[in-house]
């Protein structure tokens, strides 16, 4: 398949950068901004994406659709796209690139294939294009080779075979470690705050856990900006683990930590405008004010 027109749904932090990278490699990357926020519109402009207005218009023009948005919205978007396919009579291949459980991606795939379109399961690992090593798009499904045509176009595509759910399983288990670790570290430090031993604990970490403390200082003060969408991701990981016969409780707890951060005023920040000078200690002082009070 010689993909010429790629619909990016939606151009958020990752989506606009992926779209921009694909555009730089010769693709016509479109999106639909009717009803979208000023922030999303600004990101689409930054990525050089061509706005076609409506979802029907995007489906009508696209050869390939990439779905990149918060996990809680993945199934609803697929239903909207399937409706647009029925309205336009166009059935471009649909790639779900969201952080969702294999069970969820199978449900998304059922919606798309019933609409008559090819479905590909994909999981993204890594930072957005332009921030170092290109992100890896793991791909699976009977026709996952269609996505391989984009390998080297600002992204790396890795095929995992014909089984829907394999790509999502990679994403879920990987994010279970990365984001799960951040939430565990946040929980440890919030407990220390409540118990009045933060200074002593950080001093001990300087002596015995220097690498972990460096990571905490680099990540924990800036988690609220993404906390709202990461609640859903942790819930999808918990679902994945439960389906695999592994306790979901770790990541149900991780979702709870992100819910705390989501309530803080720092959650109104974006990656573009967050205060990069904020210290770990300053962040913890804010976060603890939003903990549930002990009974």
Explain this structure.
With 295 residues, the chain is of the alpha/beta class. It folds into two domains: 5-163, Rossmann fold (3-Layer(aba) Sandwich), CATH 3.40.50.720; 169-290, N-(1-d-carboxylethyl)-l-norvaline Dehydrogenase, domain 2 (Orthogonal Bundle), CATH 1.10.1040.10. The chain is 52% helix and 12% strand. The chain contains twelve helices and eight strands. The protein has helices at residues 13-24, 38-47, 55-61, 74-88, 102-114, 145-148, 166-195, 198-208, 210-219, 224-243, 249-262, 280-287; strands at 5-9, 28-31, 50-51, 64-67, 93-96, 119-125, 136-140, 156-159. Strands 3-2-1-4-5-6-7-8 form an eight-stranded mixed beta sheet, with helices on both faces. Helix 1 packs parallel to helix 2 (38-47). The chain is globular and about 65 Å long. The termini are far apart.
Q: Care to count the β-strands? A: 8
Overall pLDDT level: 96
Proportion of strand residues:
5-15%
Task: Tell me the overall shape.
Answer: globular
- Sheet having the most strands: 8 strands, mixed
Report how far the terminal alpha carbons are from each other.
61 Å
The CATH architecture of the largest domain can be named as 3-Layer(aba) Sandwich
Separate helix tally: 12
What would the CATH topology of the largest domain be? Rossmann fold
Overall radius of gyration: 20 Å
List segments where confidence is low: pLDDT < 50 over at least 5 consecutive residues.
none
Adjacency order of strands in the biggest sheet: 3-2-1-4-5-6-7-8
């Amino acid at each position: 398949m010689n993909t010429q027109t790629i619909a990016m749904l939606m151009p958020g932090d990752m989506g606009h950068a992926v779209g921009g990278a694909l555009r730089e490699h010769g693709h016509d990357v479109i999106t639909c901004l009717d009803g979208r926020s000023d922030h999303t519109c600004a990101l689409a402009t930054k990525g050089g994406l061509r706005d076609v207005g409506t979802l029907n218009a995007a489906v009508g023009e696209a050869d390939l659709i990439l779905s990149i948005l918060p996990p809680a919205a993945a199934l609803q978007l697929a239903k909207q796209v399937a409706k647009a396919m029925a309205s336009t009579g166009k059935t471009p291949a649909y790639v779900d690139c969201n952080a969702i459980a294999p069970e969820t991606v199978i449900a998304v795939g059922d919606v798309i294939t019933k609409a008559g379109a090819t479905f590909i399961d994909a999981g993204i690992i890594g930072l957005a294009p332009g921030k170092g090593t290109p992100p890896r798009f793991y791909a699976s499904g009977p026709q996952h080779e269609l996505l391989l045509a984009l390998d080297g176009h600002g992204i790396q595509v890795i095929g995992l075979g014909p089984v829907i759910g394999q790509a999502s399983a990679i994403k879920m288990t990987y994010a279970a470690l990365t984001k799960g670790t951040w939430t565990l570290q946040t929980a440890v430090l919030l407990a220390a705050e409540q118990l009045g031993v933060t200074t002593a604990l950080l001093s001990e970490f300087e002596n015995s856990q220097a690498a972990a403390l460096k990571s905490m200082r680099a990540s924990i003060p800036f988690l609220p900006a993404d906390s709202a969408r990461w609640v859903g991701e942790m819930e999808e990981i918990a679902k994945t683990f439960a389906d695999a016969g592994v306790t979901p409780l770790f990541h149900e707890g991780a979702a709870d930590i992100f819910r705390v951060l989501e309530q803080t005023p720092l959650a109104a920040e974006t990656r573009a405008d967050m205060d990069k000078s904020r210290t770990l200690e300053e962040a913890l002082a804010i976060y603890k004010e939003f903990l549930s009070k002990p009974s």
